Amino acid sequence: MAAVEAEGFTIKAGMKNSKVKSPPKAGAFKERPAKPTSFRKFYDRGDFPIALEHDTKGNKIAWKVEIEKLDYHHYLPLFFDGMCETTHPYEFFARQGVHDMLEHGGSKILPVIPQLIIPIKNALHTRNPRVICTTLKVLQHLVVSAEMVGEAMVPYYRQILPILNIYKNKNRELHL
Amino acid sequence: MSEIVGKKLAARPSLWNEDVEEAYRFQLAGYRDETEYLTVNSGNAVDRWPHNNYVKKLQRKDGRFYYFSRARECLEKDLPKVKLYND
């Protein structure tokens, strides 16, 4: 007797000649594009102290204001919010801006950590491999950028680590 | 490869070293070398990283700021763009 395809957990599935279909995909790895970010809104309004250049030499941002004089509580979460972006120039300015602010922030970074968690979580939850890779590199830079940053992030592990748990077995090439 | 620039002889490095990194950072900001930077920004000392003395921050001629990392930034592919000047 030919096998009959049946959905799982049905009476038909209990028949001897039935072949149960595999369950539908849950979508754990399906990309979830982020909403338009605050970074994009502020960038388009020209509120960032960065010079817009179309002939940038190398991969650098020209800052209008010295980073040491910036309010980290205001700007650093905004730049972190831009990590969800995937299009040029938002992606470049967000990534490079975060890098510059972390490299030269010193003691100004630690008090801002709680405000960075939601942007980090949002970036990881996009499930976009390129965004996740960038975010992981930013996390690496963050924990070495100042004293006690790693310890300060411990209470927020429950918000950041679950998404990394989904990808823990993805060890092959990313094909970005 | 070398070329005559005014009365100065400029050479292109074939290997990276700390002098090449120094020249790369100044030239990225639009200056020839530290001498020109100090002449243009009269009095302002160059901001450097304490652990390796690499250039940390430069002010461009248009007033904007460039910031540089602690580690080497001049990659092998950037070596042909660097000019080393002999006074």
UniProtKB/TrEMBL annotation, chain A:
Q: Which InterPro entries match?
A: Parkin_co-regulated_protein (IPR019399)
Q: Name one GO molecular function term.
A: Hsp90 protein binding
Top-rank taxon: Eukaryota
Q: What is this protein called?
A: Parkin coregulated gene protein
- What organism is this sequence from? Geodia barretti (Barrett's horny sponge)
**Source lineage:** Eukaryota, Metazoa, Porifera, Demospongiae, Heteroscleromorpha
Automatic annotation (TrEMBL), chain B:
Q: Which GO terms describe its cellular component?
A: nucleus
InterPro entries in UniProt: Meiosis-expressed_gene_1
- Report the Pfam families cross-referenced here: Meiosis_expr
Q: Which domain of life is it from?
A: Eukaryota
Q: Which family does it belong to?
A: Belongs to the MEIG1 family.
User: What is the protein name stated in its UniProt record?
Assistant: Meiosis expressed gene 1 protein homolog
Give the source species.
Answer: Geodia barretti
